[in-house]
Specification:
2 domains; 64% helix; mainly alpha; 3 strands; disordered C terminus; three-stranded antiparallel β-sheet; Arc Repressor Mutant, subunit A
């Protein structure tokens, strides 16, 4: 159990802060691996976010015990994703990096990047595949017509997802937060609404 805040020494507070930060970094790193990005990249982002302070390459290396090359690759990727920014300190020539601190802005940036990297290439491939098959007519073999229907259904689904991402996760939009709040208020339909009452 952690000591009470009013009786905590500075050393104890620093230890608990570091432990909490380290646990967050480890958890974020595991989540990043599940998303298909490198664990190191996710941990660098987690460190910059959870500390809330600009850090330079040497500081990141020391805190995470990783190589300079790993830090350089990670911050380049994070800059491309738009979830960190490069900054400077007066009188210091080193580059510093600071994470976006607004969670919804950060999530919008992640959503945009995942759409760009995963959904957009899939849509392009679907278009190319669809060009191989003729439009359906009465003379079209049944299996070819069925293939067209499947391809068109998948394309429609992912095109809708892409449009929604632009509406909800656009760089200037707050739609993602609004949509999440609205969905959270909707009743669940497992025998009744969220409050346990039958829907009328």
């Amino acid at each position: 159990m952690a000591p009470a805040a009013d009786s905590m020494t500075q050393a104890e507070a620093a230890r608990l802060l570091a432990e909490a930060q380290d646990r967050f970094i480890a958890s974020w790193g595991r989540m990043g691996s599940a998303w298909g990005i490198s664990r190191t990249m996710a941990e660098v982002h987690a460190l910059l976010y959870v500390t809330g302070e600009p850090m330079n390459t040497d500081e990141i290396m020391e805190r995470l015990a990783i190589s300079r090359g790993n830090v350089s690759m990670s911050v380049r990727a994070l800059l491309d994703w738009g979830v960190i920014q490069k900054t400077h300190k007066r009188g210091d020539r080193k580059d510093y990096f600071q994470a976006e601190q607004d969670v919804w802005t950060m999530l919008r940036a992640i959503a945009r990047e995942r759409i760009k990297r995963e959904v957009d290439p899939l849509l392009q491939s679907l278009d190319e595949i669809r060009e191989l098959t003729p439009e359906t007519t009465k003379a079209t073999p049944e299996d070819l017509a069925a293939l067209n229907q499947r391809l068109d259904a998948v394309t429609e689904c992912f095109e809708l997802l892409s449009v929604l991402s632009q509406k909800f996760a656009g760089p200037t939009g707050a739609g993602l937060k609004t949509a999440a709040k609205l969905l959270a208020k909707m009743p669940t339909r497992s025998g009744g609404d969220a409050g346990g009452k039958d829907a009328s």
